Amino acid sequence: MNPQTNLAVTEVAAGRGRHAAAVRKLNVSFGAAHVLKDVTMAVPAGTVVGLVGESGSGKSTLGKTLVGINRPTSGEVLIGNEDFTRVHGKARQQMRREVQYIPQDPYSSLSPRRTTGQTLAEALDPRGADPVKHRDAIAAALQRVKLEPSAADKYPHEFSGGQRQRIAIARALMLEPKLVIADEITSALDVSVQADIVRLLQGMRGTIDSAMLFISHNLAVVQEVCDEVVVMFQGRIVEQGTIDSVYRDPQHEYTRKLLASVPGSPEFTLD
After folding, report:
1. Where are the domains positioned within the chain?
2. What angle do CA 133, 136, 142 make, to 5 degrees?
3. Integer Cα distance of 116 and 72 in angstroms
4. Using CA atoms, how far apart are residues 40 and 243, in angstroms rounded to an integer?
5. Number of H-type helices and E-type strands within the chain
6. pLDDT score, position 205
7. Which of 76, 146, 218, 232 is the right S-S partner for 57, CB 3.0 to 4.6 Å?
8. Which residues pair with 229 in a beta bridge?
9. Using an 8 Å Cβ cutoff, are 3 and 241 in contact?
10. Which parts of the sequence belong to the ABC transporter domain (predicted)?
């Protein structure tokens, strides 16, 4: 492992460090399948951390555990300094608002019966969902993702896939959560549209307070978007560090294989 990995693990294990979210000795099983195995990692506040690995490595399981969709078998899920696994009722509902999830599919993640304004208003007030009441906040959210405020009056079928994904990003940021989990959000899009989303995320860095866990199998996209990268293999973290350190000097054989397999670049480098 890189030195950065050891530092992150040490800080989380000791309860130190300023993290938007972290997991400590996390295990997740579904029946006899042990999917996550003693995972300890952190998403530092204000950063974008890439989570990479092949299909079945446990990436999405980790993301869905952080947002509360999956329940851990053992271990801790820390949102800020609170253990998500130990809170219940209204306290748990409040903590769930601190972690927002952007799913992979921009076509099924938005209700076809709701206008964009209603969808964004619902993020702020699930019971009311009044787009008129929250008109200014909705307009600001749409402008943040480079859409016109008039988009609030339209339905999902009136948008392209890339525009729908921008709306999903806007929805996730409405509450200014501690952490946004972006789960393969470019993989269902055409290459040119992927590039637009990447440019959008790049432009937003430094302008929002939320940290992001960016789950992807595309290491080239992770390089462009993220500050740090975490590599998962068979339910375990095998490497973690800054983009520069891991991509230039990968320590684990699996990381080296991933970097060497980037399409169009058999010997992938940053140069």
Report:
1. 111-174
2. 120
3. 34
4. 19
5. 10, 10
6. 79
7. 232
8. 50, 241
9. yes
10. 21-259
Q: What letter would DSSP give residue 119?
A: H
Task: Identify the CA nearest to 64 among candidates 89, 86, 88, 35.
Answer: 35
CA atoms within 13 A on the CB side of 137: 19
* Average pLDDT across the chain, whole number: 87
d(CA 73, CA 28): 5
Per-residue pLDDT reduced to its tens digit, 1-16: 344 443 444 455 444 5
Between the alpha carbon of residue 120 and those of residues 139, 143, 155, 158, 167, the distances in Å are 10, 13, 12, 16, 8
Three-class SS state of 99: strand
DSSP 71: P
Using CA atoms, how far apart are residues 201 and 189, in angstroms rounded to an integer?
A: 15
The owner of tokens 């590599």 is 231
Angle at which helix 161-173 crosses helix 116-124, to 10 degrees, equals: 20
If we measure between CA atoms, which residue out of 125, 76, 129, 69 comes closest to residue 99? Answer: 69
Whether this prediction's pTM lies above 0.90 is answered by no
State pLDDT tens for residues 184-238. Answer: 998 878 888 888 998 999 888 777 889 999 999 889 899 999 999 999 999 999 9
In sequence order, what are the residues at sequence separation of 6 or more whose Cβ sits closer than 8 angstroms to the Cβ of residue 35? 28, 29, 58, 61, 235
Tell me the one-letter amino acid at 112: P
Interval 158-194: pLDDT, tens? 999 999 999 999 999 998 999 999 999 988 788 888 8
Residue 14: half-sphere exposure toward Cβ, Cα within 13 Å: 9
